[in-house]
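TICKET: design request
STATUS: open
ATTACHED STRUCTURE:
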């Protein structure tokens, strides 16, 4: 039985029972395993690491080996109720394109990412160094992250892409939140968690 990471707990709360779920970069399959047992969901994980794929299969999680940078062309529009991507957006070559694909394939998307606008990051950049923090522990030469963004960056992208933000949670590295963090998320939050969907377009009539 898999144990959820702290960042996966709020995501699990958003998933309705009986939903179809696609988990991008699912790792060892802990989230899908939990959702299958506790929410009776069905769906798949997508993972590229062979060892993680074996762990998914042992846990009874349906998994597909694929590179997310190639997109989600194997899936039809609205194949899933939710498409989830945790701590992976910033490691993608074309994050905006993958976000579009998430909301084509899923009716809703759930995304988490480290906030590059946190004050610790700003302070280290002001000192002329790339940040190394509790929520960004890798040094510049061995990090998997290639497209870091701030909370404001992500929300500006949502506006330009016609994406509606349904819910947002901002937390520290231990996934706790505080009053001032909610008031000044771009400065004080270490991790952002979003639930979103494609903004509905109004029908036009001749």
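STATUS: resolved
RESOLUTION: sequence designed for all positions
ATTACHED SEQUENCE:
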């Amino acid at each position: 039985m898999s144990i959820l990471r702290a960042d996966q707990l709020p995501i699990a709360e958003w998933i309705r029972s009986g939903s179809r779920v696609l988990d991008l970069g699912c790792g060892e399959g802990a989230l899908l395993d939990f959702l299958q047992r506790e929410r009776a969901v069905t769906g798949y994980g997508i993972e590229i690491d062979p060892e993680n794929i074996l762990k998914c299969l042992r846990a009874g999680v349906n998994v597909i080996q694929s590179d997310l940078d190639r997109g989600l062309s194997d899936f039809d529009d609205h194949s899933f109720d939710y498409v989830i991507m945790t701590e992976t957006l910033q490691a993608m070559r074309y994050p905006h394109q993958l976000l579009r694909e998430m909301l084509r394939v899923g009716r809703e998307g759930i995304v988490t990412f480290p906030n590059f606008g946190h004050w610790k990051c700003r302070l280290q950049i002001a000192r002329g160094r790339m940040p190394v923090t509790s929520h960004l522990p890798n040094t510049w030469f061995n990090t998997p992250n290639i497209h870091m963004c701030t909370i404001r960056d992500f929300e500006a992208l949502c506006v330009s892409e016609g994406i509606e933000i349904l819910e947002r949670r901002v937390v520290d590295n231990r996934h706790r939140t505080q009053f001032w963090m909610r008031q000044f998320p771009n400065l004080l939050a270490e991790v952002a968690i979003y639930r979103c969907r494609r903004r509905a377009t109004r029908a036009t009539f001749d």
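CLOSING REMARK: The domain at 6-198 is CATH 3.40.50.150 (Rossmann fold). Residues 132 and 139 are 6 Å apart (CA to CA).
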